[in-house]
Amino acid sequence: MAITADQIPAQSQDKKPAHEAEMTPKPQYDRDSYRGSGKLKGKVALITGGDSGIGRSVAVLYAKEEADVAIVYLDEHEDAEETQRLVQALGRQCLLIPGDISNEQFCQEAVEKTVQELGKLDILVNNAAEQYLEKIEDIDAARLGSIFSTNVFSFFYFTKFALPHLKEGSTIINTTSINAYKGNASLLSYSTTKGAILALTRSLAQPLLEKGIRVNGVAPGPIWTPFIPDAFPPERVEGFGKQVPMQRPGQPVEVATCFVFLASEDSSYITGQVLHPNGGVVVGA
Q: Which stretches of sequence are listed as region Disordered (predicted)?
């Protein structure tokens, strides 16, 4: 049963990134009705931001589809270890790789460690990001350097280092946002990075077709993840999700199914495209 906006109480966290373990109610990363059918059998996925939120759900559903996963995260060890436990309970391997994705060398090391320990790499999910509630007057070079290094540069780094290991049939999936299409005055720098990710996705898709690699994106709307108590004050967290036609927040599992589809042969005729799990908001393609 979906969590309604009225079930989201005011809350905040001192930690940044926020931790899923401290959220009320807990995000829904899985559902009993989801039955894997071997869509990703034998594949290996690297998921940035895989410790919690959408990334955790992607890791769990990929495991249900018989893939092994490596998850990259900053320092949310409790959340990451819980994701690892969930994946391993499904009989799959889950490699934890903590570190700063704004650092190019770390991104290279994360890819190499994935290949060394899990044997190969078939699916790259560029998902990790940071965001800030801000006005244009708040933004300086340090802020821009931080958010673009995490939200955009890391996508370039991971893709560059993953490419030598990817082969025909491999996939790259980038998390952009509804804000890339509609804009968001209070999340100015974040929305701008998500627009860059949209352009990156479209720009990479055609040249990588020569190698048989598909590149697509997912643009979530208001999803109940640690991103929300991380960025917004308690009064804006309360009732989160009412702004969309469905009048409720989406859950990570309602987004992760898009990542399963785009990673599998079900989407074999799709590249350079973006899926929109956003609660009914109509945006440009």
A: 1-37
Of the residues 34, 132, 190, 269, which is catalytic? 190
Which pLDDT does position 129 carry in this prediction? Answer: 96
6 occurs within a structural domain: no
**How far is it between the farthest Cα atoms of the chain?**
51
pLDDT at 120 over 80: yes
CA distances from 246 to 250, 255, 279 (A): 9, 15, 5
Q: Calculate the CA 183 to chain-centre distance.
A: 19
Number of domains within the chain: 1
pLDDT in tens, 128-184: 999 999 999 989 999 999 999 999 999 999 999 999 999 999 999 999 999 999 999
CATH number (domain holding residue 188) = 3.40.50.720
Closest CA to 112 of 160, 49, 172, 42: 160
To the query of whether residue 269 is one of the catalytic residues in this protein, the response is no
Residue 18 lies in a domain: no
My answer on whether omega of the bond before 17 falls inside 30° of 0, hence cis, is: yes
Residue 71 sits in which domain range? 38-275
